[in-house]
Fold:
Amino acid sequence: MWTHASWQGRFLSSRLPAGERLRSYAGWCNAVEGNTTFYATPSRGTVESWARQTYPDFRFVLKLPKPITHERRLTGVEQDLHPFLDAIEPLGPRVHALWVQLPGSFGPLDLALLSGFLRGLPRAHRYAVEVRHRAFFEDERSARLLEKVLAEANAEWVPFDTTFFFAQPPTTDAEREGWARKPRMPRRVRALTDRPVVRYMGRDDAEATAGSWGPWVDTVTAWLREGRSPTFFLHTPGNREAPALARRFHDEVRARLPELEPLPEPPADEEPLTLF
Structure:
C-alpha cells in the first residue's frame, strides 16, 4: 500500500523507482498494511529491500497469503506458511503483527480451526485476526467465544470500521465501487492485547472523513493512556489523500497527548503538499 499512482510526486518521490518508494512512504507514516502478501509471497530479496528502506521501529502488519486463510481455511497450510515466514524474516522486529484476515463465510462453527491454527504458529510473531462473519458482531456468545480463542493465543481482534463509509450513498466512482466490494462492518472498540490494530474506512471527501473519526480519536487516546501501542490504518475509497489524513489523525491524538512521539518528517525533496 505504498505505490498508488496518485501519490507519485506528492507523497512518493518521483525520482525513485517503484521498488524504492517505500522509503518515501516511511517519511509520511510509520506503519503499513501488507496487502500484497495476500496475493503472493514476496521473494526474500524484495523483503530485504523493505528492511533497507525503513527504520527498525517501522511497523509492518502483513496479511497471510490467500491460500492459507481463504483456500485451505487454516488447515494443511504448512507448504504455504513456512515459505512465507522464511521470506519475511529479514524484517525482524519491523513485523508488528501477522494479519489473519478470514473470509465472511468463516463463522462461529469454525472457531476450533482458528484455535488450532493459532496454537501451531511460532511465538516469534504477534497475530491479529480480522473476521467478517456477522455473528461475531451480532451474537454476544459468538463474540465471547472468539475473544476466548484469541486471548489464549495473545492475538488481537482487528476491527474494520466501515460505518461512516456506508452511512450515506456513494457520490464518486471509487465510492460506488467500494459499496459493491467492501463489507458492511459495525464499529468495535474493545482491545484484547497491548497492540490493538484498527482499520477505518472514510469517504473521498477528506473533510467529511476527518469529521467522522472523533470516536476513534477518543479510543486511541484512551488506549495510549492505558499503556497500549495501537496501530490505526486509515483508508478512503481512492486513497488519494490517505497519508495526509493519517498524519492529521495522528496530530489530533497528539494534541491530547503531547508526549506522543511525532510522525517522521516527510522527505525534504518532495513537492509541496496541498492537503485539501
Summary: Strands lie at 31-34, 59-63, 95-101, 127-130, 156-157, 160-161, 197-201, 231-235.
